[in-house]
Specification:
mainly alpha; flat
Amino acid sequence: MKDSNVGKHGGPSTPAGKQRSSKNAVRHGLLSREIKLSDDERTEFEALRTSLREELQPSTGLQEFLFDEILVGMWKCKIALVLNFESCSAASRSQRKKRAETNLAR
């Protein structure tokens, strides 16, 4: 049996549509190739970049590549720690709320 819609819904076909859809799953950026930064984050990221560049002093192409990898890796570790903290805080708040509701119901 041949479906007449096969091939019609394979996703966006225009460059603009493909660009838009490539961002669909971006929430925190941990798995993204791009780093999305707010203005505050940009300031913090640039401070990290400056500090790391002063410490590592990359001077060859390979060192620059490794510098970028280290920089992005450190930034993503920071994001992961923040997300973990926020997640744990939210879970803790939820548990406190459930305990309070249970105590009120008694």
